[in-house]
Specification:
OB fold (Dihydrolipoamide Acetyltransferase, E2P); about 50% strand; mainly beta; globular; single chain
Length: about 110
Amino acid sequence: MAVEISGKVLKIGELQTISEKLSKVEVVIDTAANTDRRENPVCLEFPKTANRDNTELLRDVRVGDEIQCAVDIRGRRWQPRDGGDERYFVSLACWKLSKTQAQQFEDVSAPF
């Protein structure tokens, strides 16, 4: 399932090697401007596989940039070996990125 998400870049992680075939970079963005919350940090994953290197999308991205991403929502179930309660995880894998401009608001109040 693909959706769009946008926000201000708060953190860009290092390349993490998950296995021989998979690496990823995690990026945290604040999507608060799109909600009624003061802060809404969301972690996005930029995977690198043998077929596609989405980490290249981050080449010109810096902390503080406003970005918009097309992401796939991926879920997975995890069952502990000790037979405990299974848990569910969701990740947002980015496959398209564009920089956007933050909205600039002009102060139109009368000077007194």
